[in-house]
Amino acid sequence: GTGSDSGVGSDSGTGSDSAAGSDSGTATDAATDSSAGLDAATVTDTAIDSGAGTDSAADTVAAPCATAAFSIASTTAKATSLSAAGSAGWQGAAILSWSWTVTAPAGATAAFVPSAAVAAPSLGPLDMPGAYVVCLAVADANGVASCQPTCQTVEWKPALFARLVWDAPAGAKTPDLSLHLANSKADGSPDLDCDGQPDAFYDELDDACWYNPNPDWGAIDVAKDDPLVVESDVANPVETVQIEAPAADTYTLAVHGFDLQGTASTKAWVDVYVAGVQVGALELAAVGQSDLWLVGRIKWPLAQPGAAKDAVETCYQSGDACLAAAAPGDPAGGARWQATGKACVIPCWEWSLITSKATPGCESKWQ
Prior knowledge:
Elements (H helix, E strand, L loop, with lengths): L40 E6 L24 E5 L4 E4 L11 E9 L7 E3 L8 E3 L5 E11 L9 E7 L3 E7 L9 E7 L24 E2 L18 E4 L7 E6 L5 E11 L5 E10 L2 E12 L3 E9 L7 H4 L1 E2 L1 E2 L3 H6 L15 E5 L21
């Protein structure tokens, strides 16, 4: 007899592990962020996960990665202090290079100082309200780079913020306008607006402008109640002023036609924000050489924070105060801070009296 075994043993079961672990979440990290407790700034740490972690029958060796990590030591209008001291190289290697980037609100000019390629730069100025997303990538001494950047978001919302923008005529030199924010003690100039009182603007202590961009107001050596002016440059006709936490006072906003570079006039806009919310949008069709536009005043604290009608008292006038002073019987009068009327513009407001330079057509006013 011949014994045969026709039984064929087959294993058709295939063992596969299709579980893929991916993490796309963001996490707020309060334990490792030294910037906790900032008044105008909120900082959120975002962990970026590439979703690696899919298991297969054959083990996959993960690519080597350096680890990018950073902290924010402090945040003010002038600068945000950053440190990449928490970064680490692959298998303990030293970090050799840093690459910082920022996505800032539209119109912001914030940049890394001294550069975006150092371990501990500062970022500033924070010259627009909104979100500044700061990211860091690193590489170690062996050339191993971080596989993804680490990012944090700084929400910058100063209590009081104003922004001046003006036209730059094509083919001509850019006019130079000057944004001013004066407190109630400012009295540094002669009575050039003919209201019987010394004028506030270009006061060495109490008017914030390009001439005095960061005076010490309120409590001595406390930065939060001090104004900060960020001046324009030739290619960027924009100036801003802000106070992170203003002291109780009345603040006056003004725009001066400092040097129009031969242009007859230029159009100007002033936007005002309270705690990051726009509460005022004002414009003047024509600012001429040496014109002083009294934009408005803000009484702080606001009666109703965030309400546009309470935030900015726009300046209107019933006539030319200097002409009215010369001719008291003029029925047009010259009262300012009226409920309606024309924008408050004082022609021939000559800060150049100090520099002995007169605007043509204005000489007679100062004789």
